[in-house]
Specification:
Elements lengths: L4 E4 L6 E3 L3 H10 L7 H19 L9 H18 L6 H12 L5 E3 L3 H10 L3 E6 L5 H7 L8 E4 H4 L6 H11 L6 E5 L2 H10 L3 E5 L13 E2 L5 H7 L1
Length: 235
Amino acid sequence: MPLEAVFFDVGNTLITTSEPEGKVFQEIASHYGYTLDGLQAEQSVSQMYRYYESAYGNDCSFWSDNLQVRKVWLDMYSLLCELTGITEQAKQIAEDVYSYYFSAEAWQPFADVLPVLQELKGSGLVLGTISNWDTTLRGILQGIGLGSYFKVIVASADVRLNKPNEAIFALACERLGVRAERAIHVGDHLTADASGALGAGLHAVLIDRRDRHVGYQDAPRINDLRKLPGLIASL
């Protein structure tokens, strides 16, 4: 049965940060008079994400509510302040970092994204996104030149559903007018993307850019998006 549609996750699948996160944090902190060591800032960012994975790695439900998304990330950036020894004005610094990362200037497409989107769209496939993101997603995609490629943009906080909940995949298929078995979802997260899509009856592809999941067999795994069109043609 031929595929008709391709859905994409967004963060770490289509887009990445424009600048290293430690550098951004350094620059924002400097506006408040703090001089941070670059290595310490990067290590603290890594420690912050280890905390994120331990606290939220298996529970993405906060992504279904915009206020909860805001709270989680403000808590994360407050932790980053704590890890780097910032005490005074930590709340305002956390707010500034949060605002920056939910704006288009913070993001850029991976180098392999635009050629693949153009190829897939040119082949007649309809494209969409299904992402655990807050209500800024559409504006960010438009701001970095990707919005026009997608017929539907489904952000979890907009629809009050989050991956890996099967309902968000079903909703995206309904909005696109495609049956689940004729759609494929591409994402970087084992549970939210691959397992979620398979559970909802879609095909799935794991994009594993850093080869962290070698040996994964539940769905096809690629480390470069340019391998996707050939993979789709083989299904």
